[in-house]
Amino acid sequence: MKEIGKVKIINKEYKIYGHEELKEINEAYNKACEECEIEDNKGNREVVDGFCDYCKKEIHILVREDKEYEEEVLRHEVTHCLLFQMGYSFHNDEEWVEKISKISKVLEDTIESIDKTKAEWYNESGLRKRSRGFLNLTNITHQIRCISVLLLVSSTE
After folding, report:
1. For the chain, how far is it from start to end, CA to CA, in angstroms?
2. Could you tell me the pTM of the whole model?
3. Which of 7, 24, 103, 155 could form a disulfide bond with 19, CB atoms 3.0-4.6 angstroms apart?
4. Kind of pairing, strands 58-62 and 12-19?
5. Chain centre to alpha carbon of residue 89
6. In sequence order, which ranges of the chain are alpha helices (DSSP H)?
């Protein structure tokens, strides 16, 4: 196990650990469940790609050759932590976490493309070329964020 980074999730810092072997990550998971008295671990469940230790504020992932897949796993685990920190009772519902994780990737890509478009709208002297479009894109970004939150809240009721 090796610390590979840190991430701040709603003012709580989580350490990110990478594990080279499946056996190693499963041992860490079972130990975390015992220490935090997690009921989810009846029968010593095995971890495939990663898990979160909410008590110690840690994220554990299996290090793989496929860095893109590893990033998806990390995004998935961060989503678990985010939902837990926000107090949602479904923070361990794998189906919901996976949906939200995929939505967050789409939102990130969309916002990134909006940022690139905004940068193109400025000339070299820093003056706006099309200020009305810039304002509209800012509103769209805000609307996308609001819609994703509303979808999340309405689907849990």
Report:
1. 39
2. 0.68
3. 24
4. parallel
5. 17
6. 22-36, 67-85, 94-120, 131-156
